[in-house]
Amino acid sequence: MAPIISIKNLSKTYATGFQALKTVDLDIEKGEIFALLGPNGAGKTTLISIVCGIVTPSTGTVTVDGHDIQSDFRAARAMIGLVPQELTTDHFESVWSTVSFSRGLFGRRRDDAFVEKTLRDLSLWDKRDSKILTLSGGMKRRVLIAKALAHEPRVLFLDEPTAGVDVELRRDMWAMVRSLRETGVTVILTTHYIEEAEEMADRIGVISKGELILVQEKAELMTKLGRKELTLSLQEPLSEIPASLNGRLALANDGHELVYAYDGHGDDTGIPRLLADLSAAGVNFKDLRTKQSSLEEIFVGLVSERK
Q1: 149: helix, coil or strand?
Q2: Edge-first strand listing for the sheet containing 211-217
Q3: Residues 75 and 189 in one domain
C-alpha cells in the first residue's frame, strides 16, 4: 500500500543562508500515529509547514495521498488538518461560526450535525455561541483542534498541541486522537512531552539540526537503543567501589546503592557473574530492581551524540 505522505529529498535554506532542513526522506503510512521529536530549532515546524503548503521547499517533493503539495496544492491541502503552535484565530467570531467557516473554506457542504459532534467531542458545545476572545487559553486550543477537523481531513498535524494546556484538555485530545486513528486518519505530532509520544505513537522520528537522524517503530527503538539498569540496595553503604568491581558499577544514593547497566536483549547480561563477584568482595545487598531506559533517555542520548 502506498504511503499517505511521501517526502523525497526535501531541504529548506532560507534567504539568510540558514539551512533549516537537510535532505529529508520520509514515508508515513495511512492510519498510523507518527511522533516527530526534536529540540527547539531542530526543524520540526519547518517540515510540517512545507508538508502543509505554508513554506516552499528549496529542493525535493511532497505528496499527500498521491497529490503533489505544490503542483496539486488544493487537492493535497484538502487532505490535511493542521493544529499550529500559536493560538491564532478570529477573536470576534463565535466558536460555532469559526469552525463552520473553516469547513466551508475547503469546499465542504454545510453539516451542522458534524460540527456539533466535533464541538461536543472537544467539550466545546457549551461555548458554541461564545466569542473566541472570551475563552481561556485551553479553550482556544480546543477551537484550533475543532477548526482543523472541520473539513474531515485524512491527515492531522498536531504541532506541539498540548504545550501549556490543562490536564483535562490533554486527556480529551488523546482520546480524540485514538478515535480518529480508528477511522483511518493519519496523525503526525510534534511534542516536548516525550511520555505522550511513548504512549501514543506507532513510530518515532528524531530530528536534530535539520536532519532526520532516526525513524523507527517505537517498540523496535526501545529494544534497540534502550538500556536496562540493575540497582542493588546495599545492606551497608559503601564509600567506594571495591577494586575487583570497578569499571562495571556506579555508586548512587550516597553509597547506599550500586547501579549496573546492561543490554537486556543480549545473550549474556553478566548478572550471574556480577552477583558472584559481589559476594566474593563481601558486598551484601537487601533488594534489587531493574529499569528499562525511557524514550526520553534514548532521545536525549541520540541528540547529545549529534552535538
Answers
A1: helix
A2: 80-83, 155-159, 186-190, 33-37, 203-208, 211-217
A3: yes
